[in-house]
Write a structure and sequence with these properties.
This protein has about 170 residues and is of the alpha+beta class. The chain contains three helices and eight strands. The longest helix has 14 residues. The N and C termini lie far apart (about 55 Å).
Length: about 170
């Protein structure tokens, strides 16, 4: 099963001498076609970008066209998210040039619910933010984990002192 989603990025204007604004991930919402009638203001990195709100305090930009499909080989990453205190969406985004020459604009590129995928992106130097999972998606994720995640049995390492006199020299002492 695939989920069709949209990501909302928010630009908050600030009264600060060093920084006039900041971008943050605002929310992840289901896309069931409710945005199809809206004409994109821009297309950024092949994603339709719709300005939902713009005033002196904030801007909200909606990006459609995201899909999530769960894979068995990522089950442990889903398990870690599902069993955390606050299960979350993870969104990787980048600042890109505004097509009209204004301030750079935040464009989401990747959406996940796997801790491991988010960690790999962070290790690669990408910007990844999270917002809480809604209860329906958290339940869907928990069901997938219950059906597909099988933890590997832990192998206990035998202490060096019990290996006897024939242990390798690098383990001695």
């Amino acid at each position: 099963m695939k989920l069709k989603l949209a990501v909302v990025m928010r630009k908050d204007f600030m009264d600060n001498p060093w920084q006039s604004y900041r971008w943050v991930l605002d929310e992840v919402v289901y896309d069931v076609g409710q945005f199809a009638h809206k004409t994109p203001d821009h297309v950024l990195s092949d994603r339709p970008a719709i300005c939902m709100r713009s005033d002196e305090k904030t801007e909200r930009w909606l990006y459609t066209g995201f899909e999530i499909q769960l894979y068995k080989d990522e089950a442990e990453g889903y398990y870690l998210n599902s069993t955390s205190t606050n299960p979350a969406w993870f969104v990787m985004w980048r600042l890109e040039d505004h097509p009209e020459g204004g301030d750079p604009i935040a464009v989401p590129h990747f959406l996940s619910i796997s801790y491991y995928e988010a960690g790999r992106l962070l290790d690669g130097g990408e910007t990844v933010e999270n917002v809480p999972l809604d209860p329906d998606t958290a339940g869907w994720l928990a069901n997938f984990v219950a059906e597909n995640y099988k933890p590997e049995p832990k192998k206990r390492a035998r202490p060096v002192s019990f290996k006897g006199a024939h242990r390798p020299k690098d383990e001695a002492s």
